[in-house]
Amino acid sequence: MISKEEIQNLSQLARLELKEEEITSLQKDLSDILNYVGQIKSSEKAADSAPASRNVLRRDEPHAQESLLAGKREAILEAFPKRENDYLLVRKIISKDE
What we know:
Blueprint: H1 4-13, H2 20-49, H3 65-69, H4 72-79, E1 83-84, E2 87-88
Antiparallel strand pairs: 1-2
């Protein structure tokens, strides 16, 4: 708990004139705040000691393009209604006004 002398010293540094009941109230309030900060610090230490979770992912291995498309590329290009060279043309859905 913070002593009355420490509260008076703080009030002098802050150039505050405090009444006796204000000193008592501040003494309790500052003690509560410091206790809360202490709880936060102890919970941070506990969180630091907790094992870190991590994602386990498969290795990223390249696949041959032929195996993914396996001759489907030309069929897709032929089935699309509008195209320009190897690009598929789609209707514009976003205007500059939006």
